[in-house]
């Protein structure tokens, strides 16, 4: 089975090449704004959106490599289609807007215009030094050059990889995601929450305080802005490193992983928003799903309703506040509430005492082609389809 994988490498452009990159980003920004303005005027006249070919013709009037300019048009078309689809469903979303220089951060070669050897060769730019810290596998499909807020440049390749699966003979486990403990497993194992943002709050506050004192549009303010960006970048890197290592450990150790289908967007509207977003539950679930494909394990999403309130031993519902961390039941069950929830999650996924409820995978993000790795259930607990999760 063929799957698409991304490979991110740090590149080190010279000062001249960095100027060329900035010029490319500026040309992409101008082209985006021009095509967006044309699309709006065209829609006002005809009550229709222009076709992709019409935008392709308009995109030829730039200094960009032809594939790069066409990709800008493709992104605009996709953006309008996504906006219209969400509007039709009654969702709230703004239409695509004009971009400032700070909002245009990348440009893409969708098919050709680049060559990767020991260095990265880009059409109209030249040979760029690249740090290939790991071997790229598969056939390269696209290349994206991206500038981070910290000023670093990266090359992101998408490749098509032939994947071979070997069955995982590990045990089945249920997972309860939380804030006190990042992960509580149904076998009574705990993975603590590293609280990356809380550890870095003092350093971030100091950097932001220095930034606020600098004169606007000054060189010193730009230097202070970079210091803030690098401080946040360290937080992001430490969080992603933890998520990658934890998800890899789980898919290698267990044949079936049951996890809650959480509405992270809704949960992040409450008073625990900072802590919830720092945990990155949605990103962790996404990592579990695509790594399960390679490890030969399976990820099952279950309805999270009342997993903490329901007794995993007798099924009695007991309402609890967030302050109540211990689950005690008249049937004799006495355990931490997270362990009780993890056991309930596993029971729902494996057709135990209570079956898994029906799901709407589209509520987790855009509908995408399903591939092996995740199972969904109907109201009776029967498997309706097997495939990769659509968690964003």
What is the 3D form? globular
Strand content: 15-25%
Sketch the topology as an H/E string, one letter per element. Answer: EHHHEEEEEEEEEHHEHHHEEEHEE
State the low-pLDDT regions, or none. Answer: 353-392
Mean pLDDT: 87
Individual helix count:
9
Description of the structure:
It contains nine helices and 16 strands. With 392 residues, the chain is α+β, with helices and mostly antiparallel strands. It folds into two domains: 2-162, no CATH class; 171-387, no CATH class. Strand 3 and strand 4 form a beta hairpin. Helix 4 packs antiparallel against helix 5 (219-253) and helix 5 packs across helix 8. It is globular, with a radius of gyration of 24 Å. The protein starts with a strand and ends in a 5-residue tail after the last strand.
Gist of the model:
The chain has nine helices and 16 strands. The protein has 392 residues and is of the alpha+beta class. It has two domains: 2-162, no CATH class; 171-387, no CATH class.
Descriptors for this entry?
392 residues; alpha+beta; 2 domains; seven-stranded antiparallel sheet; seven-stranded mixed sheet; 16 strands; 39% helix; globular; disordered C terminus
Layout of secondary structure:
Layout: E1 2-12, H1 15-46, H2 52-58, H3 66-88, E2 106-109, E3 114-116, E4 120-122, E5 126-131, E6 139-147, E7 153-162, E8 171-177, E9 181-185, E10 190-192, H4 196-212, H5 219-253, E11 254-260, H6 264-267, H7 273-279, H8 281-295, E12 298-302, E13 326-328, E14 334-336, H9 337-349, E15 374-377, E16 383-387
Parallel strand pairs: 8-11, 11-12, 12-15
Antiparallel strand pairs: 1-5, 1-7, 2-6, 3-4, 4-5, 6-7, 8-9, 9-10, 13-14, 15-16
Helix pairs in contact: 1-3, 4-5, 5-8
């Amino acid at each position: 089975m063929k799957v698409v994988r991304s490979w991110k490498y740090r590149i080190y452009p010279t000062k001249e090449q960095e100027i060329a990159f900035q010029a490319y980003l500026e040309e992409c920004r101008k082209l985006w704004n021009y095509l967006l303005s044309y699309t709006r005027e065209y829609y006002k006249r005809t009550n229709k959106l222009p076709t992709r070919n019409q935008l392709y013709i308009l995109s030829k009037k730039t200094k960009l490599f032809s594939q790069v300019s066409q990709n800008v048009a493709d992104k605009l078309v996709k953006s309008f289609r996504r906006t219209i689809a969400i509007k039709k469903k009654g969702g709230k979303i703004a239409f695509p807007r004009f971009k400032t220089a700070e909002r245009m951060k990348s440009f893409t070669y969708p098919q050709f215009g680049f060559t990767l050897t020991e260095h990265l060769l880009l059409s109209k730019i030249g040979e760029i030094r690249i740090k290939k810290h790991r071997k790229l596998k598969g056939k390269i499909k696209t290349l994206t050059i991206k500038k981070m807020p910290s000023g670093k440049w990266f090359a992101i390749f998408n490749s098509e990889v032939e994947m071979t699966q070997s069955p995982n003979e590990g045990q089945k486990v249920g997972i309860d995601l939380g804030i006190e403990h990042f992960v509580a497993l149904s076998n009574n194992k705990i993975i603590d929450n590293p609280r990356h943002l809380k550890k870095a709050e003092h350093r971030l506050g100091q950097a932001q305080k220095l930034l606020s004192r600098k004169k606007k549009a000054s060189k010193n303010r730009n230097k202070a802005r970079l210091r803030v960006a690098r401080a946040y970048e360290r937080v992001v890197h430490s969080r992603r490193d933890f998520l990658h290592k934890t998800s890899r450990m789980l898919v290698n150790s267990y044949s079936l992983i049951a996890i809650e289908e959480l509405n992270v967007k809704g949960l992040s509207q409450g008073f625990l928003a900072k802590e919830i977003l720092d945990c990155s539950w949605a990103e962790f679930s996404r990592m579990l799903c695509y790594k399960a494909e390679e490890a030969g394990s399976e990820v099952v999403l279950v309805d999270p309703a009342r997993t903490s309130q329901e007794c995993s031993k007798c099924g009695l519902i007991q309402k609890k506040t967030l302050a109540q961390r211990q689950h005690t039941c008249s049937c004799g069950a006495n355990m931490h509430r997270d362990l009780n929830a993890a056991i309930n999650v596993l029971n729902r996924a494996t057709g135990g005492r209570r079956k898994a409820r029906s799901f709407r995978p589209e509520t987790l993000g855009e509908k995408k082609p399903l591939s092996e790795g995740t199972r969904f259930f109907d109201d009776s607990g029967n498997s309706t389809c097997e495939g990769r999760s659509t968690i964003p």
